[in-house]
Design a protein that fits this description.
Length: 364
């Protein structure tokens, strides 16, 4: 903080000296750092703008005015970052373990996933209690592999698992960081390891979620970069196993290839959970829940159309079936079609504004 404050005051004083400003610019800068004065911020920016436009001053003055502006931006940027960090601390997840387990249970479908996650949590909780009584415990890893098609809730479940792990004392922070290939692999040799180390350092104490993890090794042209990434990642999986959970996720078959690409990688994961596709009934429940959360209802005729549409989608699905993402797209289209229909109605009632009817199923 002192660095940004001192730079602002120093550059303001130097500009005052160059233009013989009688301390005016310094006065504004002092008001900014001591009172967070918006008026002084505006005043100092106007002064800088006037100096930049004027032909009465030497280039040295204009350069110092530019430097002062940069210092002002850095100072306010620092304050904003500080505000965001403090806000994050104050909004830390305070939910209890029963509340988090309820959140997991309330997710539509995912029966086998819920059973496996609950078994995993029960096991880890008992192992922790056994360690407290100096009983022998298996030194198993917390790392998980989620496989299945997109839109099946892998990210949502990963977030909940991280928070639950914190509640039962397995993680010191329980925060959640999601990364992809671009966050881990650098553009040239030797830098990928450093990039992975930075991500790991940031994730320690919480959950590192790597979506489409197989993409790390699927690019033949940059295969050496992928190997470098996996080498560093595999090492971190072992070194920080006591206070880091890494969850890798992706399509089932590419994930099998991903694990076979590094001999030591699969051994670092002892829990593999397959996320099955949603049924048409589950997808229908998801869409109706989306509607209700946003103050929309479906008419009976609309529900019949929805049921038929989802049955057709499920019947015709392929390996890239989008599950919940598809439902989100259907919901967005329905809301837009509803808006197009209702906008021309004079003084629409509450029911008209909230009811999606069969006529809104256009273009599906």
């Amino acid at each position: 903080m002192n660095k940004y404050k001192n730079n602002l005051l120093s550059h303001a004083s130097k500009l005052d000296a160059l233009i013989d400003g009688c301390g005016e610019v310094t006065k504004y800068a002092t008001a900014i750092v001591e009172e967070n004065s918006q008026e002084s911020t505006i005043a100092i920016l106007r002064k800088i703008s006037d100096l930049a436009k004027s032909s009465d001053y030497l280039i040295e003055v204009k350069e110092m005015a530019s430097t002062l502006k940069k210092s002002l931006v850095e100072y306010h940027g620092y304050l904003k970052v500080l505000e965001i960090c403090n806000r994050d601390k104050s909004e830390e997840d305070k939910r209890t373990l029963p509340e988090l387990l309820d959140e997991l249970d309330e997710l539509i479908g995912l029966k086998s996933v819920k059973e496996k996650v609950n078994d995993l949590l029960v096991y880890q909780k008992v192992q922790k209690m056994r360690r407290g009584q100096n009983l022998n415990t298996t030194k198993s890893t917390l790392h998980l592999a989620f496989t299945g098609n997109p839109g099946t809730g892998k990210t949502t479940v990963a977030r909940i698992v991280g928070r639950i792990y914190r509640q039962i004392g397995l993680l010191s922070k329980g925060h959640f960081i999601e990364v992809s290939r671009t966050d881990l692999i650098a553009g040239y040799q030797g830098q990928t390891a450093l990039k992975v180390k930075k991500v790991i350092e940031k994730a320690k104490g919480g959950v590192l979620f790597i979506d489409e993890a197989y993409s790390i090794t699927e690019n033949d042209h940059s295969d050496s970069y992928g190997k470098e990434c996996l080498t560093e990642l595999t090492k971190a999986l072992e070194d920080y196993r006591d206070d880091l959970v890494v969850i890798v996720a992706g399509y089932t078959e590419p994930m099998n290839n991903f694990f076979s690409s590094n001999p030591g990688l699969k051994s670092r994961f002892n829990t593999f959970i397959e996320f099955e596709d949603y049924t048409s009934e589950e997808l229908e429940k998801i869409l109706i829940m989306m509607c209700r959360k946003n103050d929309y209802e479906l008419s009976e005729a609309a529900k019949l159309k929805l049921k038929k549409l989802l049955e057709e989608k499920v019947s015709d699905k392929n390996e890239n079936f989008a599950n919940g993402r598809m439902v989100r797209n259907i919901y967005d289209d329905l809301v837009m079609n509803h808006a197009r229909r209702v906008v021309s109605i004079d003084n629409p009632s509450y029911e008209i504004l909230s009811l999606i009817i069969d006529e809104d199923f256009v273009g599906f």
